């Protein structure tokens, strides 16, 4: 199936181009022509794969979810085999922080999409699904860490998940803006996690 | 000085127009002509007050800070005279959440400016100043609540401020996206504040 692979590669190359533009200058006034130039293809080819900019943006949010998922998986894979759920929880949350070029771009793209999500139900649905998956995973890790005795049994996993995800989202913006460094953001996260340990 | 007042009113009317556009469709591809149309004035008049779009955006971020300051002041003014610092801290943080049309627009505008801040030192400076002021105010309220015995004396006010401000920022995005309601976001905030009470 060499043809099929080729199509997917081209499609991904176009999305990656949109991505690079969104990560450096936002989605402000980005045109199909600009995206074509950035991807090194013709505008016609872009239009062959995506009917319009909105369709491309929906694809780009899908790619965003994939990349965040890959980043989390990578963070978890870097842990020792004898990892605890508490350690996995920390690695999971840390993977959501924009601490290198790749995750920084993801955060910028997510921010660029935020206003669009408020007007575009397809993008809003993707954000909602992504958020539900994240919550589900974090609730699972909090519960497991409670079962392992590393987090207090008294905690409501759903409530703590709400706090941890909002905290990481806020720290992410602060990192982008230079109000936190990677070190200080992780220290804030660790402080909150330490507080959840059995008393 | 009627002339001077008139100039300021016109300038503000133009900024309010930029504001309405940013709050509904972001800063994507917004042009001086669009802003002029929204403000009900000529493009020439817009150019009389602002040399270019960037100058207008810097003014708009200044207006953002003013509005957030007014909102916080309003939240604090609504408290009983015998308010505690703990109550003031809660009102202060709650005022930063997008819970009505005005604060929702402010959050959207702040988000629309985030990527710009990364490229534009003038806007980044304004964000940094605003953040420093916010941190200073929250550190003061946490310290005062500790002195009044309503928050644990063991806490590091700067560290707790980092957590609370990041939490509120993350909850704000979740509110905009509909992942939280006002009630659930406030419940999350209250849960974190309750945890800071003396044991």
Automatic annotation (TrEMBL), chains A, B:
Record-annotated HTH tetR-type domain positions: 8-68
DNA-binding region: 31-50
Pfam families, alphabetized: TetR_C_6 (PF13977), TetR_N (PF00440)
InterPro entries: BetI_C, Homeodomain-like_sf, HTH-type_TetR-like_transc_reg, HTH_TetR, Tet_transcr_reg_TetR-rel_C_sf
Domain of life of the native organism: Bacteria
Keywords, ordered alphabetically: DNA-binding, Repressor, Transcription, Transcription regulation
Record-given protein name: TetR/AcrR family transcriptional regulator
């Amino acid at each position: 199936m060499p043809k099929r692979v080729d199509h997917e590669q081209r499609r991904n190359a176009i999305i990656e181009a949109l991505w690079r533009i969104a990560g450096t200058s936002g989605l402000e006034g980005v045109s199909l022509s600009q995206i074509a130039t950035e991807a090194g293809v013709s505008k016609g080819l872009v239009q062959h794969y995506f009917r319009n900019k909105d369709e491309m943006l929906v694809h780009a949010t899908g790619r965003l979810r994939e990349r965040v998922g890959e980043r989390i998986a990578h963070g978890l894979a870097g842990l020792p085999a004898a990892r605890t759920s508490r350690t996995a929880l920390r690695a999971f949350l840390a993977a959501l922080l924009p601490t290198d070029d790749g995750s920084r771009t993801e955060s910028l793209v997510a921010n660029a999409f935020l206003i669009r999500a408020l007007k575009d139900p397809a993008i809003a649905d993707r954000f909602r699904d992504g958020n539900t998956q994240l919550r589900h995973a974090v609730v699972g890790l909090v519960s497991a860490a409670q079962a392992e005795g590393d987090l207090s049994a008294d905690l409501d996993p759903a409530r703590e998940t709400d706090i941890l995800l909002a905290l990481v989202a806020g720290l992410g913006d602060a990192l982008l803006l230079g109000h936190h460094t990677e070190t200080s953001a992780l220290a804030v996260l660790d402080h909150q996690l330490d507080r959840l340990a059995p008393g």
